[in-house]
Amino acid sequence: MTFGFAPSPATSISAFPTPPGSAASVNRLARMLEPAEWASAGIPLLRSPREVVSGLHSRHRPTPTTAVIAVLDHEERLTASASFARRDTVAADGWEFRNALLAHLRRVIPHDLRRRTPVRTAVLLYCRDGDERWTEEDGAWMWGLRDACTLHGLRCGAYITLTGGGWQVLGEGRGGRRPSSLSEPAPLADLVTEQPPVLTRTGGGSAQALHRSAAR
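Above: the chain sequence. Below: its structure as tokens.
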């Protein structure tokens, strides 16, 4: 059984622009990870990245500036996921992204902080404009994902970008042309055959309730 939720206004990740060289600007730049740092962090590889990307693309139908946070079990099956939109006017800040990711994780799945070692893995799919090359915005999302996983007792998993040219697992060099931000999602029924129940949520601000609209 899959639960669907009606979209609500885009998540507000509030931050005020800061002048270059200011303390806030320096701190913001410190809250991002470069590809080399990410690659050396021991992020577990996805066994079937295309299946993961295709499943999230079909469930959430992301458009540019949409983030999809998903939790996978030890067999790489989707346990829960949520999506929300980022405002284009907001500066890339890992602290803000961390808070947004953590808020949505708390809504869809209990934390695993009591476990000695994480048993579930969180991955992040971010749909944006541009090409597959790393950007400072990607670095901020990476930092935010890693920190949110630590605070929720999860293993930090892959960071994936979805652009007009296709999808790319940053730090791994794996990617493909489909799905892309321009392609039509595959029918969800074709992707969830024999899969366990999954709780998904789409849309929603960090301070706004999400309303259940249907159960399939």
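The CA atoms of residues 124 and 171 lie 13 Å apart.
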